Amino acid sequence: MALMIAVVAVSSSAPLIAYAAAPALAIAFWRNALAVGVLAPVALTSRRAGLSGLDRRTAVLCALAGIALAAHFATFVPSAKLTTAAAATAMVCTQPVWAALIAAARRVPVAPATWTGIGLAVAGAVLATGADLTVSGRAVTGDLLAVAGGMAGAVYMTLGERARARTTTTAYTTVCYTVCAVLLGVVCLAGGVPLTGFDRNTWLALGALTAGAQLLGHSLVNYALHRVSATTVSVLLLLEVPGAGLLAWAWLGQVPAARSLPGLALLVVGVAVVVLGAARRPTAP
């Protein structure tokens, strides 16, 4: 249930980024900074949050996840400004490929069904959006940035899976988002990126990004990592592709091509293969 809500929430990310009249890095900073503003009071005042009980190793994992998340946002958010929302979402959704490769490098068994599902789902994502078509140099740059965002996202998920085994969702997200916001803020200040002076609609979009994609989306994904592997979560998040495409169609007028429909069907089949394959595997003690 948490992952279902998370998918719906994160599907709004790329359309809102494309809509907001603000620099990409400023958008990335504010969605994390505003989320910290909501989480920090809870984490600092609640004993159940577990923030005071963080050991050094867990704190380091949370901080490293924050660095990876900053890299994810610093690449994915600009990509949504350079190419279409659907294309950026499809390219960043190569994340499960990198997550599975990281798992294999760590000698974590990856089921054959997972590899099959990843192949089907990623192929479906590419077919659905036409993300492999290079329509302009600007779009190519956006595609490459989104792929880099997928790589960073896979590292973020893997580190989050390890950290969540040792601490609560609130403690993990508070530390992770704080590190991410600080890094992005430093980059914005060093690069002269304006963080204020936006119009009312942009601030509303930033608020919606924080409440939806950040607090509901990323935080519920972090919650689910306590019980679901990073690879499986990454593949399930591929459902963000049709979600973002539908929102971009209804809101931004980006009408999906008819050729995208078979790709969407293939993506859903790939997700189903991964989920069913994971459900059939015996649970390790």
UniProtKB/TrEMBL annotation:
Transmembrane segments: 28-46, 58-77, 83-103, 110-128, 140-159, 171-196, 202-221, 233-252, 258-279
Keyword terms of this UniProt record: Membrane, Signal, Transmembrane, Transmembrane helix
Pfam family, one: EamA
GO cellular component terms, A-Z: membrane
InterPro entries on file: EamA_dom, EmrE-like
Signal peptide: 1-20
Sequence similarity: Belongs to the EamA transporter family.
Protein name (record): EamA domain-containing protein
